[in-house]
Amino acid sequence: MAMGEQSGIQGGRCARPRRRAGAGLIAALIVLAAAAGCSERSGVKEAKRPALAASPLPAAAKEASAPGGERSRAYDAAPTPQTAADPDPVIRIAAAGDVMLQRRCNRSARERSKGDENNAGYNELFTGLNKALSDADAAIANIEFPVFDKPQPERDMVFYGTTPVLRALKDSGFSLLTAANNHAYDHGRISPASTSRQCKATGTVCLGVGENAEEAERPYIVEIKGVRLAFIGYTLLMNSNLNRREPAAPRVNGKDWKKLVEQVKAAAGNADGVVVMIHWGQEYRTAPLQWQYRQARELIEAGASLVIGHHPHVLERVQALTAKNGRRALVAYSLGNFTTNQGRGSPASTTRMGAILKADLKKTALGVEVISWECLPTWVENTAGRFEGKPVEDVHVEVVPLMIAGLNEKLEAAADDKERAALERRIRFCEGRARAAEKILASPRSTPGSEPVKGIAR
């Protein structure tokens, strides 16, 4: 393991899913805790974590003043074991992968639509996520499409979403989105401006796009439990780079690496900690590229506490790092697909695997540090199904631990051997998906050729 990299794996391994686990155990959870003061040599212990607020970041907010014109809000939360007055609060950030809306995904929503009752059917793509995200103080995902007020022409590799999907994501527990990615301009120069307008219309916080350069490049700063966090959405990849020099033109925040580093440094000067959502890497590769390791370290040294990557459409490893001053940070190189039509008909497809990362952040004398983290593997069901008695396209995301818990409950109540055998096969399949995710997320790959970050012994 490279110098500067923390071993974040509990007891040197990941917890394995177990059959017939109680629903409250979440036995398939991949637990990868980055314990304070532990090195790979001494063996890593699971960090004890105080109880967290069991509710996502509230929708209602009041504006707060912030230097430099950043988007900043202070949120009023109901009293919890940890409030803004708590002298030692822990903040949990949840992050998911790529929300893709290929034709079949939109069709799946359309065929199950009940109008406003289920946000034109898009609620059905994210059923049950509230339970998985309920303990997060803020939850964020990458929307791999521009958003409009009405459907757009559908073409291969050109995507779009409408306002109901924003409301569905919000109802599912996501409090922030990033749209800075290679599909941000899919429907021409107006795309990022339209996305920004539709997000505003639905009360959705969206990073990395705007009606002008200032809006797209402005970090979102929010105060949670008395700690100011800055969120940045950025892409290093564009299918069509339609950014103009004119600052008043629609803009996607991206392309220039040095500019991202400058944005992180500036945000770190105005907040206690920085969370970067970055679109980078190589598609369908389950390991980061060597230059990504170097860039991750540069972002950490610039002031980032948490770096969350997207774009490969498959899972890549999660890496705990320390900055030169000893501040602990975390990089998730890719969280895979969250919803997609990819891999249809292929149960072993890595494009149907994703993860929800949960990182616990704490303000210390060194800044905001990631003190522990864990991943919930996800799986995209992508097949034909039935909805209210009629055949439909069925695309939706499943959280594997919750899926296993539900199957266990059905197994206990199985009426006959045939039903029991079918449920056991399904449980074994889910366990296999969890193990496959674990193998990638906890990969102890070294990083030859990259510059080490001092602070943790080899």
Q: Which helices and strands appear, and what pairs or packs with what?
A:
Elements: E1 5-6, E2 30-31, E3 61-63, E4 71-75, E5 90-99, H1 103-111, H2 129-133, E6 138-143, E7 147-148, E8 161-162, H3 163-172, E9 176-178, H4 191-201, E10 205-207, E11 209-210, H5 213-217, E12 220-224, E13 227-235, E14 251-252, H6 257-270, E15 273-279, H7 290-302, E16 304-310, E17 318-322, E18 328-332, E19 337-339, E20 353-364, E21 367-387, E22 390-399, H8 400-412, H9 417-441
Parallel strand pairs: 4-12, 5-6, 5-19, 6-9, 7-8, 9-10, 13-15, 15-16, 16-18
Antiparallel strand pairs: 1-17, 2-21, 3-4, 5-20, 11-14, 12-13, 17-18, 20-21, 21-22
Provide an overview of this structure.
- The protein has 458 residues and is of the alpha/beta class.
- It has one domain (5-441): Metallo-dependent phosphatases (Purple Acid Phosphatase, chain A, domain 2), CATH 3.60.21.10.
- Helices cover 23% and strands 28% of the residues.
- It contains nine helices and 22 strands.
- It has a nine-stranded mixed beta sheet, with helices on one face. Strands 2, 5, 6, 9, 10, 19, 20, 21 and 22 form a nine-stranded mixed beta sheet that branches. It has a two-stranded parallel sheet with strand order 7-8.
- Strand 9, helix 4 and strand 10 (205-207) form a beta-alpha-beta unit.
- The chain is globular.
- The chain starts with a strand and ends in a 17-residue tail after the last helix.
- Mean pLDDT is 81; it is low at 5-84 and 445-458.
